[in-house]
Amino acid sequence: MGLYGYASLPKLDGAIAVSGSNGLASEVEIARDAHGIPHILAGNDGDAYFALGFVHAQDRLWQLDMDRRIASGTLAEVLGERALPIDKFMRTLGVMRNAERIYRNLSPDGRFVLDRYAAGINYYLSTRRTPLPIEYLLTRAPAPAQWTQADSVAWLTVLAWDLSGNMGMQIERMRLAQKLPLEQIHQLITTAPEDLTRMATTDYVPLYRHVSKLAAASADVLAAAPSQHVEGLGSNNWVVSGSRSESGSPILANDPHLGLSAPSLFYLAHLKSDRLSVVGGTVPGLPVVLIGRNDQIAWGFTNTGTSVEDLFIEQVNPARPDEYRTPGGWASFATRIETIKVKGQAPLRWSVRETRHGPVISDVSANAQDALGKSGQYVLALQWTALMPDDKTVEAGIGFNHANNWNAFLDAAAKFYAPQQNIVYADRGGNIGFIAPGRVPLRSPDNDLMTEAPAPGWDPRYDWNGFVPFADLPKAFNPPQGQVVTANNRIVAKDYPYFLTGEWALPYRYKRITALLDARQKHTADSFAAIQADIQSLSMDELLPLVTAQTGTLNDPDAVEALALLKKWDGEARADRSEALIADAWERALTRAIFEPRIGHPLFKEYWGQRNLHQALLNTLRDPAIGAVWCGKGSDATAAQPCAPQVAASLQAALADLKQRYGSDMSAWRWGEAHAAVAPHRPFHQVSWLARWFDVRVPVGGDMMTVNVGGNDFSNDETPYQTRMAAALRMVVDMAHPEAARFVLPVGESGNRFSGWYADMTRLWASGRYVTIPTDARSIEQCDCKRLRLTPSHG
To answer: Which residues are catalytic?
Structure first.
């Protein structure tokens, strides 16, 4: 296996002649630095995009192929029957069909960029002299097909899906309505009290109990869908003006928080041509730098978390099951046949239905169909802003790369459709800005559900009425306070006239970043890096005084010892200490003790996996009336601490669990080991002996609410503290010294396990360090780089 693996490494120096009609206009040099980061030096934009496709294929071929299979619903061809649910879901959404329409509707310039990028990938595929990456050998997967322009558009749609999480929450609330009254469902919505916006004003519980079979079956739909943005996690970005920096120029920072993987979602690159000079985080499959800087500006993203998905309960005509109810009467479902190749089995064929709102996602699951019956009374359809054929988001990315001032940046942002994002901006002229572009559905004032839960599809009150005008989207330019901070927090005032979402992320990261910025008048790239590395847990600073005050008298020596540790703890979630582990374990045990009995185990576990219940826990402990509801029949609504028995018992339960996992010596427990960041390989992390070789693991501090985020999943009983979501890229740019911009990935540039660049940045990332990517000609000429020349051949 080792000989094959090393033989599969791509050619990195020398020359490759590029021939054919889709070749090069002039020579391109690809200079890879000590971390394998390529400088692509081309004579024109088209050749630069070609070369970017080429290096993406060289370094990330398996990732490209798997991502394309996710988007196109063809994973089962490689992974077999276990991949069928996700394939059926993606085919039902029609991601690839819509991507083909989007590509046809792009401008000539947009199509040109995708054409050249695809040509670069395909040239590598058709001319490579090395074996395919070892994943192809071990899975016996077919060689990758030619890359199409629609593959890039489809992958961009999947990235939008990953950041659009409200569909899952609507399904979970529909299921909670089978168990709880509306008041208790609202108690589980964990937005901070100061961020509460309009919530549902109608009691939807009776409706969902009327469609109980649909509610129960929808769990399978959620299980089939690719994972989406999990509540409580997100990203950070901030920018300060020159008046707030020691250099006198703006400084910008960004760290998007996403699911860890090996290789990473991002791939660092520098593209230089006659019209282009841009460096930062690209995404294999896309022809642009998504987060980064050019010679004049820098920019970075966080997720807004806007409700851009709506589920609709569609009523099926009992007399004619090929029809569904609309405000104007019965209408026919649009249908099409999909065929999926399945490894080791005959191809699967089935019919996909669509309504005026979108695809019928409840058809994805055989269990859902069985529960509803062949002529079931109701189905679930999805409307989503990313499933529209006029999407121009890829052109926005191209525009960002070329923009040289705020107005040009805004022109590009106007084409950014899905999903809505918070973008901070800085330029060398001393300006800073913020814009939240993206299509935001306009919802009627009569909409009394406000995206909390699926709406009746036959009632026009719940239909979209267009989108918020671009001119009215949140934005700022050179704000008087000299800074902008976003961390998935509420970004608009309560008098903002349009509805974005009722579920902002808890504001701990935003508050901590703001406090650290306010703590000094003048900042540097070093102080920004320190903020990105900050692991002060404001969430535990808020929770621990509540729980330690409700433990009563403890007789268990271990509980007494743990309580003493927590009372002295400064709240810094350090990897080399035990306090954060004890605190997290206590919160986990207490959350389960309070909420699981009333909700029931299966549904509680699913809901807990979708969103943390930290704010719900705080509210329950603070408000005796709420506490009495959730803490059992024996609780007294007039008691000051109705949940005190659960608080004390859960501490002991947490310590017993930690002993079983990590041994009886509390002084030897280390948060970093329990909370280790694990970047899993797809699909080898599912095979234990392969996972030990392909997965990347490193101890880290922080927690799911710290600035240096380490998102774990309390609902996972096997590894509840393991970091699954974290900074997928970090960037700091001082516009006075853009050549010294700092970047780092959680793993490495290469997706080939046999490369020295597979995980060479992991220790840097875990310790808050960075690499620089100087883009000036002298630095590139003098670097100790691997140099590959792509030369045009017209013979």
So the answer is: 235
